[in-house]
Amino acid sequence: MHDTTADWSALLRAANAGDQRAYARFLAAVTPVLRAVISRRGGGEETEDILQEVLLAIHTRRQTWHEDQPVAPWAYAIARHKVVDAFRKRGRRVTVPVEDFAETLPAPPERDPTEARDIERMIDRLEPRAAAVVRSIGVEGRSIRETGEAMEMTEGAVRVMLHRGLKKLAELRERLIEI
Amino acid sequence: MKTEDLIAALAQDTAPRPRPEGRLARAIGPAFLVAGVLMLALLGLRSDLGEALRDPMIWGKFVLPALVAGAALPLVLRLGRPAAATRFSLLALPAGFVLLLLVAGYVLTPEGGRQMAWAGKTLWPCLVSIPTLSLAILAATLWALRSGAVLRPALTGAMAGLFAGGLGTLIYATHCTEDSPLFYGSWYSLGMLITALIGALIAPRLLRW
Question: 47-76 in A: which are within 8 Å (CB) of B?
């Protein structure tokens, strides 16, 4: 297992208590490991799409991690499920041995910029205000406060809209590739 | 959208998400009530319930389903969490109790009456009623699990079915007048297993993520 995974628990614990910076660091820490596994399984051009699907799944299911449980096996189990699923939906069968996660060196993004395409199509299918909030924060990099000012919404309303938008996005992605 | 941008957006959304145990805690009461009202409306309590409860030989009718539900509940909740340890050995407890009921029933029933005690008079109503009364509870359990991350949906559905079947049988036992351990040890168990099978069949559709 990675030495770094010891930190993951502390970061995710802080994140679940509402610490946004810890959460960003947690996601940034798991991402290279996940990317390497997906890429090694033949993700090719779709590596970033699948990676984003895994990140959304981790995001919407993060309450299933309990603090008395090591975080790495939990994150790997979710990722494994999503990777196998993503390949299956794309008409390919892969198996992802758990050792993949432990042995793989973290990989940098394959293309730069690594724009994933699937997620753009999904954002288009959100209701307009939710799409605008997700774009403002995700694509344009604005903060919650700036987004609220630009869209004449309270910060609380922006938060709710972001929460709903991301949840919906995860649901859409789960259905997406079956279509 | 770049992955790093997605991470930035996700990180802004730290609102807590509901856990399966929280959702189950909210849904189980109403579901149990629905099953209870269904039993009262369609079947009715047995008229001699108070009297029957004084006979320790009849307690097994309630202990068995309670053990099944009690053993299945922690398994259900843990199966909703990836990489959480699950101890299926818990199921040995109700299984052992079934064995005990059957042996005790066999020994205590006079030889000529065993066949009749075992077959009873209400075999089919029992096998139909238990899964039916359990359905609302099964639905509540699976709904709660949808907020989890189930990796083995059929197995999880089976455990949800056992849990629901246990509670449904507990309700059915207040109606049923078959008091031989040979009867309820066999057919309550089968009724709960049928409910588990229903859970295993429908869960893969409902618990996808």
Answer: 48, 51-52, 55-57, 59-66, 69-70, 73-74, 76
